[in-house]
């Protein structure tokens, strides 16, 4: 696990963009594993700017997102489908039919998403990290062997994400569909970005703690190519 410490969120985003750009420059048909949350927004802004100014093209790429809430429509303002269109897809040339975001709440929906990924290999998987060490929506205790599945969101995750639902935890969905840890670990390269003091405990457990489902992100210690980019606050307990 390579850990890059920088000063602040803008530097996290700029460093993350360099990693992403190298992957796409070397492989124009790269398969991008994408994430939501506030952490990768700066990376996505850099990708849009670079696409507009330097013409980097995603026309041959395809994307697979990590997760989606259950129980809200794709067109809901807080769905991850909407998030990805507003924060990235509107500004690059990734074809709409190459975009994959999981959706649904049945076993068949989960299997369908795995099937869509069956013959592709994700070249770079972007990740944020939850305050409790979750990746995607794999909450603490999730077995590392899980593939795409439906999860009950923890109270911690729902309260962390209430800021996107008018600060009302009751409006935050109680379940999500998420790639499992086994799905995430198949990616060739993993790029995790974290910033802010509320991530310091999770980052320390991911990097230095035991590899244990109690901190889902700790599994990344077992992956051969992980780049973690953290700002000073998120790195405070390393
Ligand atoms: C959500 C997402 C995760 C994300 C996490 C952290 O729970 N499912 O993929 O990493 O939030 O979000 P943020 O980057 O906003 O702190």
Automatic annotation (TrEMBL):
Q: Which Pfam families match?
A: Glucosamine_iso
Q: Does the keyword Hydrolase apply?
A: yes
Q: Which UniProt keywords apply?
A: Carbohydrate metabolism, Hydrolase
GO cellular-component terms in the record?
cytoplasm
Catalytic residues in the record: 67, 132, 134, 139
* PANTHER family in alphabetical order: GLUCOSAMINE-6-PHOSPHATE ISOMERASE
Q: What protein is this chain from?
A: Glucosamine-6-phosphate deaminase
Q: Which organism is it from?
A: Longicatena caecimuris
Upper lineage: Bacteria, Bacillati, Bacillota, Erysipelotrichia, Erysipelotrichales
Gene name per UniProt: nagB
């Amino acid at each position: 696990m390579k850990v890059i410490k920088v000063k602040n969120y803008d530097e996290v985003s700029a460093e993350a963009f360099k990693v992403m750009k190298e992957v796409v420059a070397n492989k124009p048909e790269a398969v991008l594993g994408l994430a939501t949350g506030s952490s990768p927004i700066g990376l996505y802004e850099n990708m849009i700017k670079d696409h507009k100014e330097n013409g980097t093209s995603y026309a041959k790429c395809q994307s697979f997102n990590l997760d989606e809430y259950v129980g809200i429509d794709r067109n809901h303002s807080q769905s991850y489908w909407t998030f990805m269109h507003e924060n990235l897809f509107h500004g690059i040339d990734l074809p709409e039919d190459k975009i994959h975001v999981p959706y649904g709440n049945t076993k068949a929906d989960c299997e369908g998403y795995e099937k869509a990924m069956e013959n592709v290999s994700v070249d770079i998987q972007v990740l944020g990290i939850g305050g409790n060490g979750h990746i995607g929506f794999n909450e603490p205790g999730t077995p590392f062997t899980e593939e795409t599945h439906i999860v009950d969101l923890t109270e911690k995750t729902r309260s962390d994400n209430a800021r996107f639902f008018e600060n009302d935890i009751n409006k935050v969905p109680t379940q999500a569909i998420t790639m499992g840890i086994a799905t995430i670990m198949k990616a060739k390269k993993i790029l995790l970005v974290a910033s802010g003091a509320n991530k310091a405990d999770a980052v320390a457990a991911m990097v230095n703690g035991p590899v244990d489902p109690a901190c889902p992100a700790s599994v990344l210690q077992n992956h051969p190519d992980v780049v973690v980019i953290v700002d000073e606050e998120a790195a405070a307990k390393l």
